[in-house]
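User: Could you write out the 3D structure of this protein bound to magnesium ion? I've included everything you need below.
Assistant: Certainly. Input first, then the structure.
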Amino acid sequence: MAYDMADLTSHIVLKGRVHGIRLRAEGNAVPDRSCISTTADSATLAGLVADAFDLGRPIGPMVPVRHVSQETWRLDTTSGSVLVKRFWKGPGVPWQPALECAMALEQRALDAGIDSPRPVTPRSPQFGAATHIDGHGVFRAYPYLDHRPLEPEDDLSEWLGDTLARIHQLEPPLSEAPEPPWWYNQSPPVSLAQWSEWLDRGRDGGLIWAPALDRQLEVVRSLSRQVVEVFRDTGPHVRTHRDVEPWNVLMTPSGRGRWRPVLIDWDVAGPDSAPLEAAHVFASFAMLGRKAPDPTLVRRAAGAYGQAGGHQVRPVEGLLARYAGMRLAKISQRIRVSLGDARPASVDPGTADARAMADIEALPRLVADVRVWRQYFP
Ligand SMILES: Nc1ncnc2c1ncn2[C@@H]1O[C@H](COP(=O)(O)OP(=O)(O)OP(=O)(O)O)[C@@H](O)[C@H]1O
Ligand SMILES: [Mg+2]
């Protein structure tokens, strides 16, 4: 897999920061695996969830699926199986307005026939399809889909191009460029001065990534600037999914040994640059199981995107700004952990230093790579 666990977890921690919320500081920490500690707790919650979503009776416990950014469980009930997701342990989700917008786009996508599970409507919605369960937090449920994860052999390029083009046309383009999303490493912005301050502290503390940052500071600065400028200049900007990644596509059986891709997880839907998202998505899927994107897959996805009415994706300098920005974001997160400024739940503290160093050293290579990859776009 091109995406290892550390990549995944830092992605998710950044996802937690999408609305400028410090999840860990609020006691809604990522991976706090102790929240459902006993069978009795689990049974109670199963009953409450089944009732909240009008699903009859539970016929099993809440079975944890994954707990990285948000807790998810499978729950089997007399009305079928659901995937249950807890957004927040408190009574109200602090980023509710953004989540409501995301849910509205998800709803539009479902109405337009984009393949995605339709949320189960709770008896008493708090907002959208989310409901508050007293003492347990804010939840959502989806029909549970039998599936397998995406594999490098799956060629989804046409589906991807077509699906993204349809998503990009759900709403008219925005009239002006929005703030860059968090994964461009700029919201809240990591200022150029911040990198220098980290360098000073890293040097003082004798941290192993400091000499690397010293050598690559100019690359970091110019890449940071480029990410913001390219984002601003590369329209149209549209409201879109923003998390189309291999782990958010489930391969569901469609009979006779065939598999049908289903897109999940619209929770961070919002404004983005359509061409930059398209470039990132086509490159990242074409990289699954490889060290570099397969140009044929990229071209096929871009072709399908154009055919389905997608926006023009020109091979401009910085077309893969999203990819570069995400790498900068990971580096900054690891540096924060290494300096003790961020709690280590997102990144293994034992490896944060080494991974920061390796990623910083690899930046010139990344800059060279994305220059080559952008030429895969017609
Ligand atoms: N409807 C579903 N049926 C079966 N499994 C599902 C369903 N929805 C989600 N899952 C499983 O739960 C996992 C987490 O779901 P989801 O992506 O919505 O949560 P997340 O915590 O926001 O994820 P991430 O931040 O990693 O993208 C998925 O990767 C998938 O394995
Ligand atoms: Mg997900």
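The mean pLDDT is 87.
User: Perfect, thank you.
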